[in-house]
Amino acid sequence: MKEAKMLDRREFTLAAAMAVLSGVAITVAASCGGGSSSPASPTSPTSSTPTASGGDKSGSISANHGHAAVITSAQLTAAGGIALGIQGTASHPHTVTLAGSDLSAIAGSQRVSKESSNDSGHSHTVTFN
Asked: What is the model's pTM?
């Protein structure tokens, strides 16, 4: 009989993110070009991005071109912080780092805005609530 493998928190988070994104139709998005950062005003998620369900929380992403930011209810109740991948259907990744206190605030319906990693020559502001 095969022994069951235990997942650590990082593997679980990655598997959960992949499960959320697996239902999304994948399209090729053009890179958003030069510029060192994006405007600070958030835009609403588009219909091609995953939406939050149950206790999940979706974030709005400034100058969005296919990125998706969804924190699962399991991630919201995690004790520590997370590094949230927001690639979505974009042709490149970004990461948003959220501390445990940020997750608690988001779970409590408080507004939290964070700057993403700078990838492909730009970053985005991600706002929850």
From this structure: 0.59
Q: How far apart are CA 124 and CA 94, in angstroms?
A: 8
Give residue for tokens 């805005």. 113
Q: In the prediction, which pLDDT does 26 show?
A: 40
Residue 9, Cα to own-chain centre: how many angstroms?
16
What are the φ/ψ torsions at residue 70 (nearest 5 degrees)? -130, 125
What tokens appear for 19 in the block? Answer: 């499960």
Count of CB atoms within 10 A of residue 70's CB? 23
CB 49 within 8 A of CB 21: no
Q: Is 21 helix (H, G, I), strand (E, B) or coil?
A: helix
Q: Which residue has the tokens 């991948």?
A: 85
Question: Alpha-carbon distance 80 to 76, whole Å?
Answer: 9
pLDDT tens track for 116-127: 999 999 999 999
115: helix, coil or strand? strand
- For residues 124 and 90, what is the distance between their CA atoms, to the nearest angstrom? 13
